[in-house]
Amino acid sequence: MPISIASLDTPVALIDVPRMLRNIQRMQQRMDALGVRLRPHIKTSKCLPVVRAQLAAGASAITVSTLKEAEHCFAEGIRDIFYAVSMAPGKLAQALTLRRKGCRLSILTDSLAATQAIVDFGRQHDERFEVWIEIDCDGHRSGVRVEDDALVDIARRLSEGGMQLRGVMTHAGSSYELDTPQALQALAEQERYLCVSAAQRIRTAGLACPEVSIGSTPTALSAQSLEGVTEVRAGVYVFFDLVMHNIGVCQADELALSVLTTVIGHQQDKGWIITDAGWMAMSRDRGTQRQQRDFGYGQVCSEAGDWIEGALLTSANQEHGIVTLSSPGDIDISERFPIGSRLRILPNHACATGAQFPDYRACDASGAVYTWSRLHGW
After folding, report:
1. What is the spatial distance between Cα 6 and Cα 253, in angstroms, rounded to a whole number?
2. Helix crossing, 48-57 with 17-34: angle to 10°?
3. Spatial separation of the C-alpha atoms in residues 209 and 195, rounded to whole Å
4. pLDDT tens column, 39-50
5. 315-343: string of b/e by CB count within 10 Å (b at 16+)?
6. In what helix (H) or strand (E) does residue 114 lie, and over which residues does it extend?
7. How far apart are CA 300 and CA 323, in angstroms?
8. Could you write out the DSSP letters of every residue in 79-96?
9. Which of 6, 81, 330, 338 has the largest count of CB atoms under 10 Å?
10. Residue 214's CB: how many other CB atoms inside 10 A?
11. Backbone angle region of 27, left / alpha / beta, with phi > 0 → left and psi within -120 to 50 → alpha
């Protein structure tokens, strides 16, 4: 049974469902226009109703960050699942169980050592794992550089070891450090070019490399061409957040996740409004600190969701959040924000804030609120 926002205890994570659906449609239409499949990364929401909405919009496969996500989604009937974290040998048995149940789970490697572990385990259990090779396109995290001899060696080791090379993939994580359309477009092209080049190197060596998978939300929304790419993985677009807002790929009215909080006190002489949403609700993520505009722990909005300019959650303890105003003037904060009044806080990083809660409260266009469970664990 739906309830109303007024009946919710705080702090609580709210999803603005109409905004979320528009975000999903925007990304799907963008990928359709560029002629590639969208394989959404569900690590942002870890929520089956959200995943169903992404599939309904046109996605036919998903990306996950944990095998637990894969297990839950496969139980819901989703078969083509990419576990996009380099495969730990100790998790191969869990992956095997999923594949033996009929899940088309594909896994990831970026080293000869990890590849050999996959080959050895696959041979031991007579399983032909589908494996992607991760490409380093920007020095952000992990992956094999396109010019590295290890790239073809890994592909050959998989082929000769009886595994199936599903393709190459990359993630332009450094896109989170950019904030101009020109820079984002340039990185999107770099991401595309290097991953396609990696696939071509493998094919030139006489090995099959059917898929080219790239993606981050900023580059997906900035790419001008995806020639040679077969699919895009993106995740945070489903909710967006303040980091994405600073990068310039979304507007304030597209942020679909917020934390509802209650005012519980004041320090008038310091200009502090105390709330019950501390870092246990918002997370410790301070992703906007390195960007041109620092939002502290979050942007403050009215209970209805209207942006209150200059009001930020500037400090956070475990269960206390401190809201301050950039230009308080002669405002009596206890009158403007009385004890018991409620606010919404927009998060820096939707993935991190969502992870603080066991479920979301999803608000539809009518104002009705539903409980949507969230997956936790590995």
Report:
1. 22
2. 40
3. 11
4. 999 999 999 999
5. bbeeebbbbbbeeeeeeebeeebeeeebb
6. helix 112-124
7. 8
8. -EEEEEEEPPGGGHHHHH
9. 81
10. 30
11. alpha
Per 3-state DSSP, the chain is made up of helix, strand and coil in percentages (nearest 5) of 35, 25, 40
Does 329 have pLDDT greater than 80?
Answer: no
Instruction: Please work out, in degrees rounded to the nearest 5, the angle formed at the alpha carbon of residue 110 by the alpha carbons of 34 and 167.
Output: 35
HSE-up of residue 288 (Cα within 13 Å, Cβ side): 24
Q: How many residues can be counted in the chain? A: 378
The structural domains of the chain, ordered by start, are 35-239 (3.20.20.10), 252-373 (2.40.37.20)
With the C-alpha atoms ordered 270, 276, 281, 282, is the resulting torsion angle positive or negative? negative
Residue 119 parent element (H or E): helix 112-124
Q: Residue type at 288?
A: T
Q: What is the pTM of this model?
A: 0.97
Residue 24, CA distances (Å) to 39, 168, 193, 316 in order: 12, 25, 26, 31
Mean pLDDT of the chain: 98
pLDDT band at 330 (very low <50, low <70, confident <90, very high): confident
b/e per residue 48-61 (b: at least 16 CB within 10 A):
bbbbebbbebbbeb
Task: Kindly give, in sequence order, each residue whose CB lies less than 8 Å from that of residue 369, ignoring residues fewer than 6 positions away.
Answer: 2, 3, 4, 5, 7, 8, 361, 362, 363
pLDDT digits (tens, 9 = 90+) for 89-117: 999 999 999 999 999 999 999 999 999 99
Mean pLDDT of 269-274: 96
Q: What is the pLDDT of residues 216-240, one digit of tens each?
A: 999 999 999 999 999 999 999 999 9
